[in-house]
Amino acid sequence: MSHLHTGSCLCGAVKFELEGEFKKFFLCHCSRCRKTSGTAHCANLFAPGATLNWLSGEDKLSFYRLEDTNFARTFCSVCGSNVPTDAKSRGLVVVPAGCLDTDVDITPQAHIFMDSKGNWDDHLSDVAAFETMPS
C-alpha cells in the first residue's frame, strides 16, 4: 500500500497530503482525547519522520497545546475538525484517523489510557448497531 495519504476536514477548507509510514495506531481513552473528540476515544496514527504538506486551508488552521504537556491538537477553525499535528520536536506527525480520505494498512494496536476512560465506556460492543440512523 502507498505511503502517500491525503485527508481533509469536514467542511473541506483544509486539505493535506502526508508522505510516510504509519508505525503506531492507538485508541486513546484519556480525558483530554475524550474532551477534544466528544466521544469515548481518539483514533490516532503516528508517522515518525513523515512529511506533511498542507494543500489548502493552512490559513484556517488553529493549534492548541496544553501547557506543560505533550498534548496538542491542530484543527480547522471553520468546522472544528481535528487534522494532523506536525510534532517536529518529537520527530513525528500525529494523524487523527477520521480525517484521512485514503485507506491505511494498519489497524488499531491498542486501547491506551484505559484508567481514565469514561464510566459509560464499558461493554460498548454489546450496544445495538444499525447501518443508518434508527427510527
From TrEMBL:
Provide this UniProt record's keywords sorted from A to Z. Lyase, Metal-binding, Zinc
Give the top-rank taxon of the lineage listed in the UniProt record for this protein. Answer: Bacteria
Zinc is among the record's keywords = yes
InterPro entries to which the protein is assigned, alphabetical: CENP-V/GFA (IPR006913), Mss4-like_sf (IPR011057)
Gene Ontology terms, MF aspect: carbon-sulfur lyase activity; metal ion binding
PANTHER family in the cross-refs: CENP-V_GFA DOMAIN-CONTAINING PROTEIN-RELATED, GFA DOMAIN-CONTAINING PROTEIN
**Family as reported in the entry's similarity comment:** Belongs to the Gfa family.
Know the name of this protein? GFA family protein
> Which species is this record about?
Marinomonas foliarum
Highest classification ranks of the organism: Bacteria, Pseudomonadati, Pseudomonadota, Gammaproteobacteria, Oceanospirillales
